[in-house]
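Troubleshooting log. The previous structure file for this entry was overwritten by mistake, so regenerating from the original sequence record. Sequence copied from the archived sheet and checked twice against the printout by T.R.
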Amino acid sequence: MRTEHLGWPRDLDPDDGPGGRLARRLYGREPELAALTSVLDAVGRGGSRLLSLEGAAGTGRSALLAKVRSDARRRGWTVVTGRASILEAANDFGVLRQVLAGSPAPQDGRSVPALLGGSVPNEDFSPFDLFELASAHLFDFDAGAPVLITVDDLQWCDALSLRWLAYLAHRSANLPLAVVVAGSPGEMSEDRLLVDELITSCERRTLHGLHETAVGQWITDALEARPDEAFAAGCRRATGGNGALLAELLTALAARSVPPVDESAALIESMGRTAVAGRVLPWIKRAGPEALAVARAVAVLGDDSELLMVAELAGLDVDTAAKAVDRLIRLDILSDTSPLRYVHSLTRAVVNSGISAGLRTSQRLRAARVVRDHYAEPERAMPHIMAVDRSGEPWVLDALRAAAESALARGMAQSAAGYLRRALREPMPPAARAGLLADIGAIELGAGVDGAQNTLLEALDLATEPSLRVRIGVDLAYGDATAGRSLEPALELVDEACAALPPERRDLVAEAEFGLFMAYAASADSGEFFGRRLPRLRERVAGDDRLTALAGVVEAWSDTRRGRDRAGCVHRVRAALEVVDRRKPRDVQLRWLAASLLVDAEEYHLAGALCETDGRFTHRQSGAGDAAIAACLRGRLAHGRGDLKAARTEYDSALETPQSAGPARMLWLLTDIGDLDGADRLVRDHGPAAEAGPTWASAAFAFARASLCMARNQYKDALQGFLESGRILCALGIDNPAGLAWRSQAARCHALLGDTVAAAPLAEEELRLARLWGGPRALSTALAATGVVTLDVEPALEAVSVLNGLDADLHRAAALVDLGTVQLEAGAAEEAQQHLQDGFALAREINARPVSLRAARYIRRAGGRPDLGRISGVTALTAQERAAAERAVTGATNRQIADEMVLTQRTVEQYLTSAYRKLGINGRAELAAALSS
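Regenerated output below.
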């Protein structure tokens, strides 16, 4: 049975399989079928028509030609056909011979023109004489009967046959003639200009991939079941809607009885690759060897398939590569995009599978060099290098190290560790391998990878250089601290390695002490640090002004934990920040610790300025890059200011940060905004694993979970949670209530459970500690709890007043509501109403739903109704919003306002945006009028 060469079948054998047998139905080709019918109808009414069908192989050109021939025969037309071939492109009159060979013998008994025999009457007989003779012969079959000529694979047609078709097209205006040609514009031909000249005189129809509906119907008919959405989408994506590929794919799927369900979608590409291989590669090869080289280059380069790199990898000059790309685009193999991509994923898979393992390795390495040289981004070459098991080339090791450094700068610790793990497969001396393992272990440690300690111990076994052993020891100490293990073995290792350092490297001793401090900061052994290591650190930095200033962060950390000398802590931190060297990892760690201490000290303007990051990575402190650490700090600042929306955005960025309180802070925030269901999901998905020892993160999570219980009126569970948080903090030596006010919250729970005797000492102790520290937000929290527990108006009033001039909307709203409730209990209903309404309006404005609901409840108890009018207008502006707005009215820029108010420019922008919203205006131009009203 004759079939079309590398396209859809003209007539398919019934045993070709369901995908092939159904190809004759021409799914999704209704517009083209209508155009063909229109051509026949028009010629039947008189005159001639020419139609060109253009499309890649497999789009149904030949099947459409077969359909129009069948329709013409049913109408009684004379039908003749020809098909060009790449093997006969140089055979003069090859297609014309086919056309004439299929025509009936003349009625008068004359022979078919001598042209069919390959000879001409005499040497003076021109091609145009043959054109005349052949054309006259076609219309001599049946006087007046219309004639249909179809020519397939026009792109391979010989030049003289093309000239005859063009001759016929220009001289057949009054003849009952229909000419339908079909071809692929992307395949090579020396006579491309002649092809273009011919089809410009035709009505043109371009065949694209089948749409979703047609693909779905074909699947339904072939597999005898309606496909699930993912399965149908997978078939269309894999084949690009190419009918020939789809037919082969469905035949293969049917042969294995694969059901068209979502679960089968994963099988489509693997099964289809084998099924369509016999079609795809010949299609590409027909476009020339350059096209095959380009196709392979694009398959290897993937998302890096820019023309310049494709040309270099294919070994072609840019012009030649561009022409090959153009042919592949016309063939519907590649998409006309930058970077270049395959239209059908199956086609890319077939091309890839046709590259031998050895050639693929070579091509991958060449691709890596091409991409590395083209871009200034080391990671761009990694997909190619990572696909090669081992290269043995020094530049590969350098590229992997550079990519790891780049990944660390972006906070992508897992990627960095993966690149360095791949680097271990390259040949290198033991000392270099030890350093590489130490780097991997440090990164894994920060990222919370379980095997980090084993990696560091493996590095230690290979390390002989004292400075490297010092670094490994410090990292082991940090790992032991975060896991709750004893630090003693790591401390002995560090001390031993420090003693072996040569005199010129004694600077590493002080750096090691700073590193051990960071380990102690994460452990419950802070008391041991103060007694044993802190004196040694002071000794090491003595006489060095820079190191002495950096040691001030250590002193500030100690005082902050104990909640004493807030002003002195801020002074020491600021002095340390003056000498921080952002090029030194240990300095960067201390810088972020300094920023956290400033947040605890409520020096928000200073802490905010430190949150602008340059991207250096700090693995030992938090397992995250600067961006994630900065996001967590910005979240704390926004939370403290009462900008809950901004806080949520920032905490989202830090939620997955290993060894951090990110989940706890997000849980706390979700409780503050009243998203209790979201808080429950976070507890389920991000609850901490069992700790080997007490950590700050576990204390923070216990506090946040207790806050959630309190919001759900589960006061007994909340009380247990707050007391558990306090137990952990006490074990860590942390007394300062600025971080977690567990005593005041536990006191509130006791009071709500009716035990004011147990509540009072906790509230009093927190108030004492808060006054000792002096942070206004922490003090307001303690004062408000004292007022509520003791029903004393004075501390409740002070809780509001200490926040005057501060941007602390959440604390202020809560303090106002607490004051109102205490006043209501004291019988001062009128004053209570005022403060409750103010607290309600502010809580509504910042979306602190639990506070606003509590305020509304007490307003109703006082006999009033919540005043929704207070939520907008000038009176709704916070003190900081009004101050920023008034400065903006004078013409000050955001930068000038930030300098004057000692804020970041970003904070000023947030204030002004909030002010515009409350005032109901669009910008600065309307600000003066809105404030005056």
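The longest strand covers residues 49-55. Archived copy saved in two places this time.
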